[in-house]
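Q: Entry one of two.
A:
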Amino acid sequence: MRSHEAAEAPPTADRPLGPAARRASSVGLVLAACLAATPTLAVADEAASAGAAGAAPPSASASAANRSGAGLDPYYRQRPAWGSCVTGPGDTTGPDLDRAGVQCADVTVPLDYAAPRGRTITVAISRLKATDTRHRIGAILLNTGGPGGPARAYPPTARAAMKEVGARYDIVGFDPRFVGRSTPLDCGWPLGMTWLSAGADRAGFDRQVALQKSLADKCRATGASVLPHISTRNTARDMDVIRGALGERKISYLGYSYGTYLGTVYTQMFPGRHDRMVLDGAIDPGDYRPRLLEGTERENEKALSDWAGWAAERHGTYGLGRTRAEVLASVDRVVAASARGPLTIGSGADAFRIDDSQVPLLLFSGIADDTEPARASFGGLLSVLVEAAGGAPTTLPAGFAGELRYALRGEGEPTGVQSAIICGDVAAGRDPEQYWRDIERSRAAHPLFGPLTRNINPCAFWDRPREEPTRVRRDAPALIVAATGDPRTTYKGSVELRRQLPSSRLITLEGANRHALYGSYANSCVDDQVNRYLATGKLPAKDRTCVKEAD
């Protein structure tokens, strides 16, 4: 649920992304030839592409744009001052990165690419240099999703996932603008996650309308000068500055979840600047919108049902029911009890009162991973929720208190950047009544997840984005990886992106209810296909299908 890198040590190849990064990418997804909606921004992009260090000779039209946007040249020509990743005495991640051989730096970028001589911000980057320099391929940039997920701490994880080919790359992580160690945004919200359910009735929805409006107003009051410049398109521009600052003509890319949308946007805005692209758990760019979870209800119901079958076989451990139906009935009892009044879970300073706007989020967050450890973790949490629904005192499973402090109270880390990115990308509907009608229509078929995925959010009260969202209008070769049961970025999104990028290839993993695969799901078929592509630069001759392996 959290997004700040200091929340956990970097994961390893045999351990999936930790709860912070995994849940950030889960709810983020949670995500053109026409570069911008305004002439000035179009000029800035062409200048960035044509005037970058190491760029190919510009065309006549690009040369004209370059003359108009020459203010970007210094950003591309900067060279990072690499050094220790330790940022201070309280930094728990930096020492691990130093020991792993990672170096860190800041890259300066303009806040507003239409005014490159104006205010600047910094983007934190890291690099694990290639050790096989004789066969070096280039640099590969990482994004772990979110939106708003940091990747500065992830080069060691990527190196392990890449196996032998990892030694041939400079592996570069970065915290997107206003995330993690980059110039920060903090909306000062009283909660960290805005993906809440509308609850059981109109009164609950009305409370959500008031809450989400107050969040938007609070963020505008604290960050009005920067909010218009927080968007995926500006992050893609930052990526190209990073490419130039690294001295690379082209850059490879590994993106998960929302990171697939970011990578796709980069290919459209900066054609010819990308090399090998791996997009894991892809979003259909045409389907990217403020309600990112809309349309995932069936996949989440399937994942919950499959988990219930698993839990039924372990009734002696979790006490949730001896059949799938009995376990799902336990879930229903928790939801119904939370609608009658808040449930108390935990004790002392870590006692949390959760109602029917929050319980569906906790259930949703627990089913995006069908590995044995993840299922067991969710089983422990649901057992606590069942006890709380019965009025019994409860003790939280280890590790959950910190997540809940951020998600439900906004404690420990800055808040708001995920919403700022989504709301800055695509305009949302403004009429609360339309949201209520959508919720009620969805509730009939999807009573648990419909009020969550269709609920109103801060974007309904945000200022309109300055640019139109990116549309795919040019082909780009990429390797797309997807699980058929992905409950976050559903499989149909990857299939659609494959269609929009005819030169791409799709690696399908059948039988897995899992979001994000490469390097963390331990499927040798998927990992081998990706690593072969990263090593050779050659996509498979045709789409490939892999099958889920036993835990």
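Q: Entry two of two.
A:
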Amino acid sequence: MIPVIDGHNDLAWARRRRHALSTQQLHELVAEAHTDIPRLQAGGVGGQFWSVWVDSSLEGAAQVTATLEQIDFVHRLVQDYPEVFAFTRTSHEARTAIRQGRIASLIGVEGGAQIDNSLGVLRQYARLGARYMTLTWNHTTDWADAATDAPRHGGLSEFGRDVVREMNRIGMLVDLAHVAPSTMRDAIATSIRPVMVSHSGAAALCDHPRNVPDDVLAAIGAGGGIVMVAFVPTFLSQQRRDWHVAGEVGTPPEVTIAHVADHIEHVRAVAGVHAVGIGADYDGTDAMPTGLEDVSGYQRLLDELRRRGWSEDELQALAFRNALRVLEASDADHLAFLSGRQDRPRVLIVVNADGSGPRRLLSWLNAAGVRADVRHGAHGLPENLESYDGLVMLGGGMMPDDIEKGPWLPDERRLASEAIERDLPTLGICLGGQLLAQIAGGEVRESYGVKERGSTVITTTSDGRDDAVMSGLGSAAPLIENHQDQITVLPPDAVLLASSEGVAIQAFRIGAHVRGVQFHPEVSADDLLWWSEPTDPAPGDRPVADLVAEALRVDEQNTAACQALVRGFAQEVREAAGIRA
């Protein structure tokens, strides 16, 4: 049975409404609810974000009080059933709980009005264990437009952007369920961490204001976030939505497991299999699809997707791995906030394509004590690197001078030139490495060269084995790649650090601290799960299934080597920050 981490369950409010927030009798069937312990276990629930929601009939301080009472309920729930639940804040704690056979219990605050316009209240929720907050509920707040209310801000107000920045700083995930598309787009542009949608559907399949448009789905996937598909019938079926809007006359159109699977597959197609999850909204709505009437039904949904051809790896990504990865990207921020140690060196990460945002690189830098600010070139880059201790430039599927695809490339080249001049710790990956080579006087092809896909052995030179960063690969390491070689001649005085069988210049160093690589330390076997067969196969192209199988065999070595490389880079960043300070 594959464990499921669900993004949204309203048990706390249901127990408030019907049982005065009592935790008693949950070890037996609770007929009037969707959720109890026997059915959680039957459904294979390995982790649950317990929603703490407050009805909008309460206002101001009363909302804060009701939120705190529900947070207290979650803590008491865990304390009263310690053999069943484990209170967890981080991905590591959640994984440990799942291995122990307990349900990892996390908290999400469902509505920005619940902070009563106070960042201090927001911080207190985080200290009590809340790891996400939905920016609005159904009503527009003083600082954010909701999907089901009249807009007042055109998205986020400036204070709303401050809320998002503070959530990034303290390690709370930004949840875009319930918010207007304009708010979604503003939040994605503001956040430097992956965002989530805890319980919504795809607008392309059902025209409900609570659902997510395709452009936002794509942006969330590109930024390493997650969209957790809800089981709410009016989100899933246009017929059911139309019946509801028309006044619910007659028998409601049936909604089934297939409808949920359709939305999951649409999110996968638009955002990537790495970006899809489950956020059912049990006990937050009355009706549920046939076959998913309560929390015991998750495995039936996974069986439906198996019948549609989903592999076990893909099902695991959907069920729990994606949620843990997104949580992990903000874990270090959250732990640093709790410990009071947040004065960390800063690295600018430049993103060049929607599908090339940082994923595990973020968590590794965080774990190494480095804070990363992520900026997509299309959204504007800083004037200079004065406030940064390091620079990372990611790939983008374009040539170094491809201004039509990347009109911001001159700005990126300017930052790269500054980094070279200052000998600032810099890691150029793929396109980023090719930019560095060209700027420093090397030669880059006018068209793509050798293509490498899947597992490739990267061999370090003697200089590479002595290099503070590249030595993380040892003498050789199998890495997982998807690139085409472009660098033909190293810049003058550059040092060759690594090669592969097909690509002579895989890594190089300029000065003491500027490095370019053509391979992808960001890529793991999980990333290959959403690769598709090339439409125009090149000689030597192998089936994706073969590439995935090979990548899975070397993934542990790949991850260890890439993490060691990033640790070495982070150490140089920390040292540079000390010099700057």
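A: Comment on entry two: The first strand starts at residue 4 and ends at 9. The two ends are 52 Å apart (CA to CA).
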